[in-house]
Predict the structure.
Amino acid sequence: MEKNPTQIVSELGSRLLQLSRPNKGSLVKSLREAATTLSQIEQPLVTEIVNKKKALKLLEAELRPLKNSILKHDLLKNRDNDVSLLVTVCVSEIFRILAPEPPFEDKYLRDIFNLFLAEFSELSDTVSPYFSRRAKILETVSRCKCCLLMLDVDCHDLIHEMFNMFFSVAREHHQQNLIQQKSSKMQQRKATTQQSQQSLFNDISTIMNDILKEEASSSLVDVILENLVKEGQDATPGANNLASSLIKSCTDTLEPFICSFLTSCFMEKDSIQSNLKDSYHEIIFMVSLNAPQILLAVIPNLTQELLTDQVDVRIKALNLAGRIFAQPKHCHGEIYQDLFAEFLRRFSDKSAEVRMAALKCGKQCYVANPSGNKASGVLTAIQERLLDFDDRVRTQALVVACDIMKFNMKYVPLNLISEASERLRDKKISVRKKALQKLTEVYQDYCDKCSEGYMTINDQFEQILCKILLLCCDKDCKELWSQNMELVLSDDLFPRHLPVDERMRHWVQCFAVMTHIHLKSLNSILSQKRRLQNELRHCLTLWREAKDHNIEAVQRKLKSYFAKLSTCFPDASKAEEFFQKLDQMRDTTIFDALTLLLDELTSTKAQIIREKFLETIGAKHHLFDFLRILSTKCSPNIFSSEHVQYLLNQLCSNTSVNTQLKAPSIKLLLVILNMFPSYLRGSEKQFLKLLKENVSVGDELTEALSKAAPYISVNFGDYYPALEKVCLEGTRSQAKYAVSAIASLAGSSDKFVFSELCEMLIDSLLGGRNIPTTLQSLACVGQYSVLAFDSIYEDISRYVYQDFQAEPSENQPPCDQSSGCCNSCKLKIYGLKTLVKSFLPRHGRGQVVRKIDDLLNILKKTLKSRGLDGIRSCDDTGANVRLAAAKAVLLLSRKWDHHISPEIFRLTILMGTDSNAFITRTFLTKLHKLLTENMIPSRYACAFSFSLSGPCRDLQDDSLRYINGFIRNATREARAHRDLDQGESLTESPAYMIVFLIHVLAHDPEFPSEDCRDEHVYARFCGPLLSVLQVLLGNKETAPFLFCIFRAIKRAEDAVYACITPRLHILADIGYAAVNTLKCIAVTSPEAPRSILLPSSLYKLSVTSMSDSQNKKKSNTQNALEQSFTERVVHIFQSQISMRCQEDIPAVVLEDRVLPSLLRNQIETSLTGSTEASKNNTRCSRKRAHLGLPEKSTTSREKKNSSSKKCKTVEGAEHISCNSISLRTVESEIPIKKLERHSTCSKESVGASASNNVTSSSHSGVVSAIKDISNHGEAIIGQRIKLLSPTDGCFYPGTVERFNSKSNAHKIAFDNGDVELVCLNSESWETLSHESLGQQELLGKETESFGSRNCVPEITHAKANNDQKKKTTTKQQKKKMPTKLITPAGEASVSEVTNTSDNIVLRRSRRQRTS
């Protein structure tokens, strides 16, 4: 009969009990058998409590021998690992069988728990053969709640040790450190072990939960929190998970301890001894993940931290709040509403660092809960920071916004995209650069998602591309110029492997939202790319043919090409250096690869060629980076023939293109073909179909065809019918390009096509059908086929001449508001253009042999006509016909300039004086364009001088900008020609225009009469001459040339009318005096050329056989003009110059630093203090409209008020320059008249006082001491000075308080309380530094009575002071001031004027007043 397990255990116990000193072998054997048998014993299945207790007592009796043997042999303290393990197993089984009653007495429980802890400490060894036994012990202890007995026997230290041990075990048992075994047995063992590990974690958690729920303590809570936030090598996910599990399961028990600890950390952090006080933020975060309700009492303290004054504290609190709200699937924003509200307010914190931290946290919050209730508030806060005043915050907001767009592109708010795109126009360069980087990344992701079908094309995202294009207009940062933007469009904007059709979908949508500004930027990028490719083609050709040409000439051309090519790179200087190195290498491999790239039309093949080329040269090549960029610019990577083919296929398909996208598709096609017409190759049939079906855009399509014609291969017969129809029935613009396309497409076999076309056009013209278009077609035919046009020239010219003589119909419709021209005048203009173009054939299209005299005659009559000479035009639009005639003369001057008479030239130039401002502006604009393109002779540039001195402010600005540009270009070309030929030609200098301007002025019917000696009249008439001289004198090299020109004119006569010669000499005298006055350069300057060639059509040598009386008379006249009269004319002209405040000066003038100060002013239309003589001599004055003067001068009070308003500014403003102070020369008779008007003293005293202050002349002027402070600056700060007022002639004392070096102005506090900004260079002033205090006070009191009798004594005092200081400053004066102009005998000077290079003897007309 077999024994039951209880009997076996009893017998084993009895045997062990009988042994006095059992050895290890017998112990291990007996204990192993006992452990195995005990595991088979279960508690009795008795439901009644009484019966169960009886059954347990019977079991206890059976197990008592084993229990006693363990105690007898002191096995609880045995140190052998095997014995100890088996004893622990037996004890745990005894606890299980006899539960719930403890099987051992209390005195033995501590040793038992030590056994348990010893085995628990080995649970981390999951590969041990005893791991399952130890896991079983843990399970038994957990199920029986044995550890609660530790509380009963006061084993708190063991509990604390056990908690630490469990966290250590949890750290280990979750690691994947089991050895991978291939056998199925090992894999099964691994699965069993992992199951044991999961059960192990649950058992540990149960034990700890039981203890915490029974009796929690602060020490245990510290252990939990420490493992919750532990960092470093000791930190493991297992320990963290165990701590989190305890907080979740024991929330109610742990809440008081956790809240108390956290509150202490907020309130009394320094008094806490725990090491966890520095980690309280991390504890709050971890607790919020597991039991957020615990923190309800703590969160208000965190909210207060967000409001503290310490920035670092606010940032830490903000980061914590951000982490709390950034947890997915948590509604912390709803739970902690007050904290969330304060969190959003930190986005507008006063500290930039806090705002930046808030942005980072906001991104985490949105990414975690993009659809949460609080997401919109976060997005709004982020969007507002895009407009932050701190560039660092804007940059951070931009990065965050772009990351959010990439994360949730399909549902991102559209206004966020728009605001982020606006940062491309940020005032800070760093922000713009970052915006470009991040937005290109966003756009790439957007393109990928559209290609994958995840989202559809969106206008807001396409705006990113539009605004990237605008970076070409950025003048502050070279890295954002078109040189770099080309690389952005080709390499960075689209994903590299995005198909062509997908790219074009985005381009078409972009063109749907693109404005003309965006289009202009794109054109600038494409035109630069085209220019580089064209220049590089020429350069490659030179490289290949260098052996067959002159080496020096080739090198010179290459140098020119390198300079042009380098401008297409971000760093032009380095690029030019690299081109030089490339020239030295002469590597045919590189040249061949570049040629292939330039000739390739498809982007796909070009990319393959480029990659192969870069791979061939290798990344270690010293020019690799340069060649990488150069090969990119040579490739058709932005647009190619594939893009054109896609567009044409879409446009020709009836179903594939959206109706709304048809217009932008055509617009994009035209942009590509206008820049790269060769891309049409291979798509000719589709283009022809498009041309026939789209009449509304026929102009643009025909233009594109005319440009692409040389590059495509088509059957001329297919295109000709459509083009012929356009020539007859289309618009003028369409006809122009249609004829060009016919000329390009027609081959040698089609040489008679123009003859046939001319016959049809002349029939249409004589039949009165669509006359404007017909005339345009005929004009273009005349340019492309001279022979065909010669056959019909007489018919056309007869028609045009008859039209010019026809009377305007009384019943004709009113003038067209858009063009300002009636139909009759329009036909005259169109006919004129037809004849003019026929005399300007295209290059290689034949030579015109017919005479041009008839055309020039009608042009002359038209320019002179105002209803006369047989030229008929309506009163309202006759100016438009004259404008067309003037433009025709300009165009004809390209090839027929030697046929243009001086009279026609003069009439053309005088179009710059037309009373109609629109006509004048149009003429000057056309003139400027032709001069810039070097299409006409430079002599026509003198037309700018008339509007330069005119009354219209806008025309003045435009003319000044135009003439400055002409001077710069002409000077540069003259120097290049001089360097090339090692010679110098005055006719190529921009100053040579004076030769023609003087002739035009001399033949002006309004030239002052011979008996007129009013300098004001001459000053007004010579305004164009003097104005352009001021511009020319901005270059120091120009003055000798001008002297030479004036000397030559003085020795010449007028070749047209000899009687005009005296006028030429008068104008030369005035110009000579002006140059002397403005530049103070001696006549015998060594730089002056010895001779000059004057145009024979205008000038001839003077006749030397002259009678003595004539010589004498002429000599007297010249002396009078040269030595006195001309000087006054110049100074009176200068008195008309009033420098405007800096904000009124055109930007183009400010940028031209080489101009003299007087150029930066505008002509005033009124003169202050005109003399009585000038009023009486008005009958001699010429009433030129643009130089007319009012009869009455403004009062001094009005002038002072107006000038102070004009020049009022703020000290220290960065845009103020030294030229912002107005200057005016001393005028005759003004000081005395103003003194008489303002003084209250008697006439005798005034006369007596004035007699001491005048020169020997009958007219007097105020002579004041002048200080040249160009070298003083801050040296006179603190000194006392007195300043002459231009309004009342009185001196006002004050103290110099400050000096602004940027505006060259001193801040002066006057004794009467006024504070002004004054440029002392242009003022009459004296220093009072050596006065006694009493004298200074007395002077201040005297000058306070404005307009009193003290005014004249002040001037006398100034004269006395001047005389006294002459002795001490004679040497300095000699160095600074040249010799005075000598007044001839009999000629009394109206004022004593000392001429200096800086024009310092000037009256103050405006003064900057500060508050």
In short: The first helix runs from residue 5 to 18. The mean pLDDT is 76. The CA atoms of residues 1271 and 1321 lie 11 Å apart. The chain is about 60% helix and 5% strand.
